[in-house]
Amino acid sequence: MEIYEDIVGLQTKDKTGMITTFHVKNFMLVPYTRQTRKGRFNKRAMRYNNNQVAFKDLTQVVMNLQNIKPYEKGVKIKIDCTFKMKKQGNTNNVKNIDVDNMYKSLSDGLQGVMFYNDTQVYQISAEKIDSDYDCIIFTIINYEEESNG
Questions:
Q1: What is the rounded CA–CA span in Å between residue 85 and residue 63?
Q2: What is the CATH number of the domain that holds 52?
Q3: What element of type H or E holds 99?
Q4: pLDDT for 49-93, tens place per residue?
Q5: Which of 24, 48, 62, 124 would disulfide-bridge 136, Cβ 3.0–4.6 Å?
Q6: Which residues fall within 8 angstroms of residue 138, CB to CB, at 6 or more apart?
Q7: 6-36: per-residue pLDDT in tens?
Q8: Which of 4, 17, 31 minimizes the C-alpha distance to 104?
Q9: Number of structural domains, the chain?
């Protein structure tokens, strides 16, 4: 179980509905890469696809271990996410990676595992910050319940 010591998944319920939070340390998503028929098999696209498979598998394992249930088809959700990126020497990763591509990568990785389809996402909040380590933190909230309350 040592491989999962840097991953925490928690699902709770309060008056607003189901809240799911993940904290994944020492793992970073590859930013979304546009894939056309011609570019589908280029190195960047293959790296993105391999990273997506690893993230989906990781998420599924943690969900199984922590008894976390996916959001059902048709349930509206809100996703808040933070991408902490480890600085590499004097470079500033925050300026080199687009937060919208990081969010798209997260959404693609959670689709089919944490929720049925990314069309269920009605609100997003994303930020990127420099850190001493790589880390993804995301929270998924039942949007219908929150917006009605």
A1: 24
A2: 3.30.1330.70
A3: helix 99-110
A4: 888 999 999 889 888 888 888 998 988 999 999 998 887 766 655
A5: 24
A6: 21, 22, 79, 80, 81, 82, 106, 110
A7: 667 777 877 667 888 888 888 888 888 766 6
A8: 31
A9: 1
